[in-house]
Amino acid sequence: MKLNAPRLTLIKTRKSLGMTQEDLASKVKISRAYLANIEGGKYTPSLEVAKKISHILNRSIDELFL
C-alpha cells in the first residue's frame, strides 16, 4: 500500500523524535499494532486518538491525517 504524504509525515515526525511505534503507542495509550495500522493507512484514528498523537508529536491533525 502506498502511503500518502500525511502518513509519511506521521512516520517521519515520530522517527525524528527518536520514538518507536511502541513509544508513541504507549504515550497515546493504544496498542502498537493499532498505531502500525494507522501509520499504514489501514485504520483512521478517532478524533481523540488523532488529537493525542498530534499533541505528542507537536504537529497539527491536518499535517498528520488529512
TrEMBL record:
Residues 10-64 form the HTH cro/C1-type domain. InterPro entries: Cro/C1-type_HTH (IPR001387), Lambda_DNA-bd_dom_sf (IPR010982). It comes from the Bacteria. Transmembrane segments: none annotated. Pfam families: HTH_3. SMART domains: HTH_XRE (SM00530). Keywords: DNA-binding. CDD domains: HTH_XRE. This is Helix-turn-helix transcriptional regulator. It comes from Neobacillus sedimentimangrovi.
